[in-house]
Amino acid sequence: MFKFLKGVVGGSGAGIKDLPYNIGDPYPSAWGSWSHFHGTSKDDGSPVSIFSLSGSNPQDGHLAAGRNGVKRLRTVRHPNILSFLHSTEVETLDGSTTKVTIYIVTEPVMPLSEKIKELGLQGTQRDEYYAWGLHQIAKAVSFLNNDCKLVHGNVCLASVVVTQTLDWKLHAFDVLSEFDGNNEAATGSMLQYEWLVGSQYKPMELVKSDWTTIRKSPPWAIDSWGLGCLIYELFSGLKLGKTEELRNTASIPKSLLPDYQRLLSSMPSRRLNTLKLIENSEYFQNKLVDTIHFMEILNLKDSSEKDSFFRKLPNLTEQLPRQIVLKKLLPLLASALEFGSAGALALTALLKMGSWLSTEEFNVKVLPTIVKLFSSNDRAIRIGLLQHIDQYGESLSAQVVDEQVYPHVANGFSDTYANLRELTLKSMLVLAPKLSQRTISGSLLKYLSKLQVDEEPAIRTNTTILLGNIASCLNEGTRKRVLINAFTVRALRDTFSPARGAGIMALCATSSYYDITEVATRILPNVVILTIDPDSDVRSKAFQAVDQFLQIVKQYNEKTNLGDTATGASSVGISSIPGNASLLGWAVSSFTAKGKPSDQAPIVPASSGTHVTSATSNASSDTSSTAVLRVSSSTDLTDQPVPVSPTSTDGWGEIENGIHEEHDSDKDGWDDLEPPEEQKPSSVLANIQAAQKRPVSQPVSQSRTQATSSRPKNTGKVTKDEVDDLWGSIAAPPPKTSSKPLNGKPSGSLDDEEAWASIAAPEPPTRVRPLASGRGRGAKPAAPKLGAQRINRTSGGM
């Protein structure tokens, strides 16, 4: 038969003219005279099954029965009956003989006998799978007998096939006929093609062709007998040879034995209706049948039943046959999630099942569902996806992440639910390496800029950690523009001590990206300040960082002394300090640990490193002491000439006062922050007054002469808000300043290099001076700030 089909196809690959499918290799067995082949669609290559039946005479009885089977299969539709796709009849000439071949194309299936060998199930798992299969065939037979009043006539192992999802389906409809028991005038054969059925599968009344008795019997009498034959062949593993073998019940499960005996009753009227078998049999009550049945009617269950089921499902799948779980339950679960009938709890079970698949199968069966779920509006679904992103993130392609996943994930950055914002932030550790530079620069960094001033301290901390971990994903220009400003201007001045510690660790982990000028003028001055931080952990990290960056400077000095200055302006970073060699770890979430957000305080409180919730309450009590620390650091650095950094004119460079000053530019994501609250004037006044009490040991002219000879002069005019710009010399080039002499006498020339000029209070002006721009960055007008008021009040107090 196979050679004949190959001859029909002709080896050209085009296939039969009227059959839009390609015929593949045959299966070893099939029902009756039919042959069963693998096949594929010529349109899209999708798999199908192709059945063929040939005869040399167009009036051959086998062909007539085959045509009856095609007609019945086309018209009878049921979930447990083989799905019909296409059929055709072809005539070919073999010498002087005409051969007719009937083709039926169906969904891809394989014979049950072959699938049982392939699965190799044993013990309880085998019995559970057999119970599920028999349950499906019993429903198909019940549908034919009770609903359609049809008689299949040949239910047996060969008439059952198995789909790719391991469902059992009934086929072989060649003998199928209407049950005409109500037709009293009928006298002939009710089953026109009953001669195709082997005698071992016939009940006694059919063997004797006692059509009167058959018509008086219930419609299910013949097929109930056939179902008993199927049960025998299934559990014995043997093909039924003669009717007497049905008496051997040793292999039949005890819970099924009473129903088996009733199916094979010698009296047709007493045979068990297959509908009763489904409803009452104890054998069908097992975990596999109950689980699959629940999944199939999931839409009819209420939310509490669904939640209870999906909580148990991950553990339940461990006890079920693995192949059935992957090929039957997994597609059902994926479909339920896609169409919204399953909630977020089902994600855990889906991903657990997916972990048992190969990479290729996971990408085909699970990943498409996950990608679709990212567009869900259900917050619980989105949280579940982000919580488990480490399980599937590596399988997502860069194109899918950039075009389909990230646009939906990014909505979580601005969500009002803090836990979702944090999970979105953490997911970027997996997704960011797959994003394009355009998406990173145009979208991701803008969101991270806002998260660095989030009301939740854990989010601010984890934003810094994320930037340190994804620094390698940024291009060189973006790194120059973002990293130092993010870590020093913001992280190191955060009110939350773990955030300051994260800033130090991030600087160390990314040390290879900074040149020697940035290390000496922008990183070390900021880190040294934290060696006297109120928090011991921050101090410890600060000392380690100082050692690391001093080592970088020493290495540069050694190379310079040896005449090797070629790398002077290039990166001279060394390996990170111990503990920073790998990815930075996430900070403890304030939502899970404390459950209470911390308000952003204007200054670092002395006890802020102890508790998340105490950052705000302790801010006012420690304002004075910490203000001295911050002003002092500004004083020491303002006197030194700072080379112009490439970051001084970009979005990050505009942030001179960290999160406490309004930004002037919208060039990139680090400029679109909300203006934070102003510092309290009392702390600054206290610092200015403390500085003014320092004795002046030199005349102004001598001090001016020494300063002029030792440092280059700046010729700009100071603005009144320079007193507030405590970190301007770190985040950007030094402002050009001029100050009044401490002795109150008018000065003949500008003196902006005096050591304490940045904190000493100038003499009250005799006339109102215009607020000119003194930031050294162009002609941007400076908005009036509290600095001018502070100076006036201080002067009046003096």
TrEMBL record:
<protein>
    <recommendedName>
        <fullName>Protein kinase domain-containing protein</fullName>
    </recommendedName>
</protein>
<feature type="compositionally biased region" description="Polar residues">
    <location>
        <begin position="698"/>
        <end position="717"/>
    </location>
</feature>
<dbReference type="GO" id="GO:0005524">
    <property type="term" value="F:ATP binding"/>
</dbReference>
<feature type="repeat" description="HEAT">
    <location>
        <begin position="366"/>
        <end position="404"/>
    </location>
</feature>
<dbReference type="GO" id="GO:0004672">
    <property type="term" value="F:protein kinase activity"/>
</dbReference>
<feature type="domain" description="Protein kinase">
    <location>
        <begin position="2"/>
        <end position="284"/>
    </location>
</feature>
<dbReference type="Pfam" id="PF07714">
    <property type="entry name" value="PK_Tyr_Ser-Thr"/>
</dbReference>
<dbReference type="InterPro" id="IPR001245">
    <property type="entry name" value="Ser-Thr/Tyr_kinase_cat_dom"/>
</dbReference>
<dbReference type="InterPro" id="IPR011989">
    <property type="entry name" value="ARM-like"/>
</dbReference>
<feature type="compositionally biased region" description="Basic and acidic residues">
    <location>
        <begin position="657"/>
        <end position="670"/>
    </location>
</feature>
<feature type="repeat" description="HEAT">
    <location>
        <begin position="523"/>
        <end position="561"/>
    </location>
</feature>
<dbReference type="InterPro" id="IPR021133">
    <property type="entry name" value="HEAT_type_2"/>
</dbReference>
<feature type="region of interest" description="Disordered">
    <location>
        <begin position="597"/>
        <end position="798"/>
    </location>
</feature>
<dbReference type="InterPro" id="IPR011009">
    <property type="entry name" value="Kinase-like_dom_sf"/>
</dbReference>
<feature type="compositionally biased region" description="Polar residues">
    <location>
        <begin position="681"/>
        <end position="690"/>
    </location>
</feature>
<dbReference type="InterPro" id="IPR000719">
    <property type="entry name" value="Prot_kinase_dom"/>
</dbReference>
<dbReference type="InterPro" id="IPR051177">
    <property type="entry name" value="CIK-Related_Protein"/>
</dbReference>
<dbReference type="InterPro" id="IPR016024">
    <property type="entry name" value="ARM-type_fold"/>
</dbReference>
<feature type="compositionally biased region" description="Low complexity">
    <location>
        <begin position="613"/>
        <end position="627"/>
    </location>
</feature>
